[in-house]
Design goal:
Elements (H helix, E strand, L loop, with lengths): L3 H7 L1 H8 L7 H37 L5 H34 L18 E6 L12 H8 L2 E2 H8 L5 E2 L2 H20 L3 E2 L5 E2 L1 H6 L12 E4 L2 E5 L4 H6 L4 E2 L7 E10 L18 E11 L4 H19 L3 E5 L11 E9 L4 E10 L3 H6 L1 E4 L5 E3 L1 E9 H12 L6 E2 L5 H4 L3 E2 L5 E2 L1
Parallel strand pairs: 4-9, 8-14
Antiparallel strand pairs: 1-11, 2-3, 5-7, 6-7, 9-10, 10-16, 11-12, 12-13, 13-16, 14-15, 17-18, 18-19
Helix pairs in contact: 1-3, 3-4, 5-12, 7-12
């Protein structure tokens, strides 16, 4: 969420930067609402001061035995006027707040121009995509042939865009999550959390999922209680510190969690309907950092490295790209996508987005620290996938497949699995 005064002071610069992401800032409306809000505050303050003076005159005149009828009438008029102004001010404040909630973050000038993944700038490639002497299968065919994935029974249970893993497949999902958590907690310094999967509207608003993306969320309610299923652990992890002032000495905070994620994928029908790429429910290890704004750019590069380390441990070929301004998420200033090689599609596909939100989320969630002058100031927040289990499993199956239909897994997973190979019939083999 933006500081209205800051946007107004930036003026044409704010309009320019938001236009890079396809948003037209109505600066005149913003200035009008801010002016009316400030005028209402001044008018209410002036009337309260006058009301206080009149109340004092009533007491003094009454003690002297004078006529207080006109003073009391004036006091009633002031009270009514103050109430009217406060009502009007609340309406203006609500309208201003609703407008600010819909304005996306200002993209960093480091983000390239453009509005699609075709405009992303490649930063680096790591690893060599495997070359097969046979026609590689996709992860759906591999999973179903070995019996470690069952999409038909998942559809029977819940409809499309769900999956069931079994046997070595379920063990492999658990191993991936544990490997990623161990990397982030033991090597990268994150603190593991177990968090709620159902959160309030305020919590969703704090990280920017609401109000803009309500159609993408699953929600439930009992009686008058409304709760949303989390689309990512970013939501509860970041909001752990909502409405708090974090001592500077405690920054940076590094948080991680392994949770299910729930997304309706509204508007994406027809895309990636087959397999694990785009599901309504999937598991993910998320990493979040809460930092001083001055260090946010450096922290972003650090986090990208942490997400890359997961793919490096698995020996998977991938690349890193910087997203274009118009393709950057609503709350983000700058985003790097990490894209893993998917042999069946002969291309790289996004497996992790790592974003710097600047102070945008912190202002919405009221997360602060103290500056050198001791005064409260917003922190900066960052988050990334480190990594999603389903998409990692898809890439792993496809990059590790053998001509006989078996799967030879990375050595790094053996301590978590107890086996290195999944035979064509789904049987684990050391």
């Amino acid at each position: 969420m933006h500081d209205a005064r800051a946007l107004i002071d930036m003026g044409a610069e704010a309009v320019r930067r938001l236009a890079r992401r396809g948003y037209t800032l109505d600066l005149a409306r913003l200035e009008d609402l801010q002016s009316r809000r400030n005028q209402g505050i001044r008018s209410a303050d002036d009337l309260r001061a006058e009301s206080k003076r009149v109340a004092s005159e009533v007491q003094q005149t009454a003690r002297q035995g004078g006529d207080i009828s006109k003073l009391k009438e004036r006091a009633r008029e002031l009270k009514d006027r103050i109430r009217d102004i406060e009502t009007e001010q609340e309406q203006v404040q609500q309208e201003l707040g609703e407008l600010l909630l819909t304005i996306p973050n200002l993209p960093d000038d480091a983000a390239p121009d453009g509005d699609s993944d075709a405009d992303a700038v490649e930063i680096r490639r790591v690893g060599t995509p495997p070359a097969f002497s046979f026609e590689p299968k996709d992860h759906v065919d591999l999973g179903e042939a070995t019996g470690i994935l069952d999409f038909a029974r998942a559809t029977k249970l819940s409809g499309p865009r769900f999956a069931v893993s079994r046997g070595a497949g379920a063990a492999l999902e658990r191993a991936l999550a544990t490997l990623f958590l161990d990397l982030h907690t033991r090597r990268h310094g994150y603190v593991e959390h177990a968090v709620p999967y159902l959160v309030t509207r305020k919590t969703m608003t704090g990280t920017g999922q609401l109000p803009k993306f309500e159609e993408d969320l699953f929600k439930t309610g009992v009686a008058d209680r409304e709760l949303f299923l989390i689309p990512t652990a970013e939501v509860p992890l970041t909001n752990l510190y909502a409405d708090e002032i974090i001592p500077p000495a405690e920054l940076p905070l590094a948080l991680t969690a392994h949770t299910p994620c729930f997304r309706s994928e509204a508007g994406s029908y027809g895309r990636d309907t087959r397999g694990l790429i785009r599901q309504h429910q999937f598991a993910k290890v998320e990493i979040v950092r809460i930092v001083d704004p001055e260090t946010a750019d450096t922290e972003l590069e650090t986090m990208v490295g942490h997400a890359e380390a997961c793919l490096q441990e698995l020996g998977l070929a991938y690349r890193v790209v910087k997203l274009a301004a118009g393709d950057t998420g609503f709350s983000a200033r700058l985003t790097y996508d990490i894209e893993v090689w998917i042999p069946s599609q002969n291309t790289y596909r996004e497996i992790s987005s790592v974003s710097n939100f600047g102070t945008f989320q912190a202002r919405r969630a009221n997360i602060r620290t103290r500056g050198e002058d001791g005064k409260p100031k917003p922190v900066a927040t960052l988050n990334g996938s480190g990594l999603p289990i389903g998409r990692t499993l898809a890439a792993l199956l496809e990059q590790c497949q053998q001509e006989d239909g078996s799967l030879v897994l990375p050595e790094s997973l053996v301590p978590y699995l107890g086996f290195r190979r999944i035979k064509a019939d789904g049987t684990p083999e050391a």
